[in-house]
Design a protein that fits this description.
Elements lengths: L3 H7 L6 E3 L7 E5 L4 H11 L3 E5 L4 H4 L1 H5 L1 H14 L2 E7 L14 H5 L3 E5 L16 H9 L3 E5 L2 H11 L4 E3 L3 E2 L19 E2 L8 H5 L3 H16 L5 H9 L19 H31 L1
Parallel strand pairs: 2-3, 2-4, 4-5, 5-6, 6-7
Antiparallel strand pairs: 1-3, 8-9
Helix pairs in contact: 10-11, 10-12
Length: 295
């Protein structure tokens, strides 16, 4: 059976590449910018699917030349999806979310196939498409699309998105990595005794946002984080609701469900502040303790 290392040797970086499975007429399209794509591509390939590994689709927004030719790329991908009989599109973070700047149509909708977004990083942050005229409302609606599933690796975030943003089409799928793709400079492969490594959360570098908060909002955020730090086994949603119970007017600062007129820029920034404080209060201590325990 092909190993991950052998599969990665066949993989040409930064290209669109098709891996055929003998006799199969079923294809999964995977678009991502990060290492887990190889793991998932290999799993589908071993299961008998053809796999079309694609460059991150959000490059259509971040690269000037691609954005200029977005209509041509749009038509080209629809043609390839149909040609290769793609059954589903799987994308890392916002990689697979392509909203046409003029029509507002989703690319996977236009191609007639469902999409799964696998969220490693947080998805309550501003994606690259917002730099090209796509609004945050369109972005949130893209995640709520009925032909879309959001696979979220952090259970707290999965629950938060439903409770505070109205994104209900989610599934909790924990993320782990195989030793072959851990950073080599950290531990030599020969010394890696664990079969898999679960990744932690809360790594936003946003300390400056904390300093810029109003005194009321900072008090509210610190109340939420203090509650979570004291109740690590409880859902973040419960911690937010409990901290806000005596301050109903503050709920709007963290909530943006469909139909609400909240400023999504502010709401997303407020959640990034929560992440920044959680990182300072929890992440480093927990990772350090885990590293010491595991040697």
């Amino acid at each position: 059976m092909t190993t991950l290392a052998e599969f990665q040797k066949r993989r040409k970086p930064h290209t669109n590449q098709l891996f055929l499975s003998a006799g199969s007429d079923k294809t999964i399209l995977i678009t991502s910018h990060i290492w887990w794509a190889d793991m998932i591509a290999l799993a589908f390939w071993r299961a008998g699917f053809n796999v079309l590994l694609a460059e991150p689709w959000y490059l259509m927004y971040t690269d000037d030349a691609r954005f200029k030719n977005l209509d041509q790329l749009w038509d080209s991908w629809i043609a390839q999806i149909r040609q290769h009989k793609v059954q589903a599109i799987l994308g890392g973070n916002s990689s697979a979310i392509v909203v046409h700047p003029r029509t507002g149509e989703l690319l996977h909708r236009a191609a007639g196939v469902p999409a799964v977004h696998y969220w490693w990083d947080e998805f309550r942050t501003r994606p690259p498409m917002t730099k090209r005229g796509i609004t945050l409302e369109q972005y949130m609606n893209a995640m709520r699309d009925s032909r879309t599933l959001n696979a979220v690796w952090d259970l707290d975030v999965c629950e938060e998105m439903e409770a505070f943003f109205g994104v209900e089409n989610t599934a909790h799928v924990p993320l782990a990595t195989e030793p072959q793709i851990w950073p080599v400079h950290t531990t030599p492969l020969s010394k890696r005794t664990h079969a898999a490594c679960f990744l932690g959360n809360c790594f936003r570098q946003s300390d400056e946002w904390v300093a810029g908060l109003s005194s009321d909002l900072r008090r509210r955020v610190e109340a939420i984080v203090t509650d979570k730090a004291a109740n690590l086994d409880e859902p973040m949603v419960a911690c937010v609701n409990r901290a806000m119970a005596s301050d109903p007017a503050a709920v709007a600062a963290f909530t943006a469900p469909p139909g609400r007129a909240n400023d999504l820029n502010d709401v997303l920034d407020h959640w990034c502040v929560i992440e920044a404080l959680l990182r300072k209060k929890l992440r480093y201590e927990r990772i350090s303790a885990l590293a010491n325990a595991l040697g």
